[in-house]
Structure formats: C-alpha cells, structure tokens
Amino acid sequence: MDEEKKITCIICPIGCRMQVKTHGKQIEIIEGNKCKKGVEYAQEEVLNPRRM
Hints:
Layout: E1 2-8, E2 17-23, E3 26-31, H1 36-47
C-alpha cells in the first residue's frame, strides 16, 4: 500500500517541509529536505514516531 506523509523537520530552525513516500513499511522517496539531518529525521519520524 503506497502512502505519502508530509512532515516538518524540527532538527534546525529552517523547518524543511518534506514529503515521505512509503510502500508498506519501506521508505521509497524523501523530498524537500535541505540537509542530511532532515533525511535522518524523516526516516525516524515515519518508521518509529516518538511524538503524537
């Protein structure tokens, strides 16, 4: 099942708005990040969310 989530990165003050496309529990594409930390944050937030 394909799904797209929109998240805002909270790692730095830029606050990148990212789109994360998943297929099942696999991340297919992460778009909108301006740095590597954003990719790491998006992966963690989608696969293992800690905030509600």
